[in-house]
Amino acid sequence: MKIALIGATGLVGEVMLRVLEERNFPVTDLFPVASERSIGKLIYFDNNTYKVCSIDDALAAKPAIAIFSAGSKISLEWAEKFADTGCYVVDNSSAWRGHTDVPLVVPEINADTIAPGGKIISNPNCSTIQLVLVLASLDKQFNIRRVIVSTYQSVTGTGITAVRQLDNERAGIDGQMAYKYPIDLNCLPQGGDFLDNGYTTEEMKLVNETRKILSKPAMKITATAVRIPVKGGHSEAVNIEFEKKFSLEEIRSLLKKQEGIILKDDPGNQVYPMPRFCKNKDEVFVGRIRRDMSVENGLNLWIVADNLRKGAATNAIQICQYLLENDYL
To answer: How confident is the model at residue 232 (pLDDT cuts 50, 70, 90)?
Structure first.
């Protein structure tokens, strides 16, 4: 079981290695790939030491799975080359998410969209994963009319430079800036780049990816993405309007049954999800469940998940496990 990990030294890549170990994925040969300046660097995985190699070397090894977490440019250039060798590509960038012939997969919801002939599989955006895991069963039962989501996203979603910026600011140290403005004691209402429609790329990912995963291309959904000075995970305030009537007991029951979700919803005792306590967890946490009193069949939720785990690494490794367990490899 040869596995190539492109982007092995990045924040997500490091977590992917940890999740592969935790889940005892049967890796026999690991080909960690990073930038040229990292070639030769030692990577420790499953009580073994591996040297970071070039992407050409990883391609020549013809791995069974290549996990990409090095950005869209690298994925667009190399994913098809790996797929042409018969390798399954699990891509964590946005490069392939919009392609109609590439499945966009959250295994608990739509693993059945993976077909043996399709070698490239796309991992959704971190904010999308935690959102759709909550929406899927609710939509089946009550038919969602509209979704409004506001995200409060960890700096870890931007990468190591953003984490260092936050740490430097808190320590009073001048250093490289991932953002134009300070992040500590601040909120930045910009995720990604601004588009012609006034939304950001992060906001439109939430819209377009949710529609694709739920197979509802006309779903009414709007988003505002905000970067905040935390490291533990992404939070989302979600307002849902349903076509059908519901009870809060039905909502809680459906969410309790959904694999991958943990309810933390006891406001009387101040129990609700927070990124500080979701860090290093694979589950999506849901709380603050209450009716929207301003509209018929409206619901408010608060959703939190570790964006490096379920929002990226864990979801990707779950896809790899699905391929293994269903004899794709």
So the answer is: confident
Reading the block at residue 41, the tokens are 């660097």
Are 134 and 260 contacting, i.e. CB atoms less than 8 angstroms apart? no
Superfamily of 2-123+312-325 according to CATH: NAD(P)-binding Rossmann-like Domain (3.40.50.720)
| Mean pLDDT (whole number) for 232-252 | 97
Measure the CA angle with vertex 63, ends 57 and 68; round to 5°.
Answer: 80
Fold of 127-307: Dihydrodipicolinate Reductase; domain 2 (3.30.360)
State phi, psi for 178 to the nearest 5 degrees: -80, -25
Q: pLDDT tens digit string along 100-146?
A: 999 999 999 999 999 988 999 999 999 999 999 999 999 999 999 99
Question: How far is Cα 283 from Cα 311, in angstroms, rounded to an integer?
Answer: 10
pTM: 0.96
DSSP string, 132-150: HHHHHHHHHHH-EEEEEEE
Show which residues are catalytic.
Answer: 126, 234
Q: Read off the tokens for 255.
A: 């969410």
DSSP label at 157? G
